[in-house]
Amino acid sequence: MRTYYQDAGIHLTSSAIWVDGRRYPLDQIEGVWRRARGLPGGRLIVQLMILLWVGALAVLSFTLGARGHVSGGMLTRLFTSTGGLVVVGVFGLVLSVLAVLAIEAVLHGLESARRFGRRQELWVRVRGVDVVLLTTTDSVRFGKVHRALVRALGNR
């Protein structure tokens, strides 16, 4: 007997699939389909708002500086003294770190929305009855189970 997939709740072999203690023989499965419901999570929206906030803060800072709120004499004092250069360097470093963290938060949000965004269901028809085998938001696990089931049904 060949094992196609196995984890804590699912064991799929060449003869049957066991899901949460229930056994479904492969020779009685008449069809397989999947459904996806819902939209990606709200975490992505929050992380996009953080990126927009950081971008707006950067544009506002640039606009205030460009309109003459920072005088030329002040810039000359900052860039000609050692203490001023240290302040400019630390301020630039802090802004760079904040920008990188904001971008990282958005990228992490995109990845988590892609992997854990929608609720996916794997359905089969067993002896004329439609049965939900798996409901999960983990698209990687869902894909592995679905591919393994299609392979097992193709090899029966």
Task: Walk me through this protein's architecture.
- This protein is of the alpha+beta class.
- The chain folds into 2 domains: 73 residues, Pleckstrin-homology domain (PH domain)/Phosphotyrosine-binding domain (PTB) (PH-domain like); 73 residues.
- A 4-stranded antiparallel sheet has the order 1-2-3-4, covered by helices on one side.
- A hairpin with a 3-residue loop joins β1 and β2.
- α1 runs antiparallel to α3 and α2 packs across α3.
- The longest helix is centred in the middle third of the chain and has 35 residues.
- The CATH superfamily of the largest domain is known as Pleckstrin-homology domain (PH domain)/Phosphotyrosine-binding domain (PTB)
Write down how many β-strands occur, each being a DSSP E stretch of 2 or more residues: 7
- The unreliable regions are none
- Going across the major beta sheet, what is the strand order? 1-2-3-4
Shape call: rod-shaped
Tally of separate domains = 2
Helix content: 40-55%
Measured by DSSP, the beta-strand proportion falls in 25-35%
Q: Helix/strand/pairing class, anyone?
A: alpha+beta
Major sheet size, sense and barrel closure: 4 strands, antiparallel
CATH fold topology of the largest domain: PH-domain like
Cα end-to-end separation: 11 Å
Number of H- or I-type helical stretches = 4
Mean pLDDT: 82
CATH classification, class level of the largest domain: Mainly Beta
Order of helices and strands: EEEEEHHHEEH
Computed Rg: 28 Å
CATH architecture tag of the largest domain: Roll
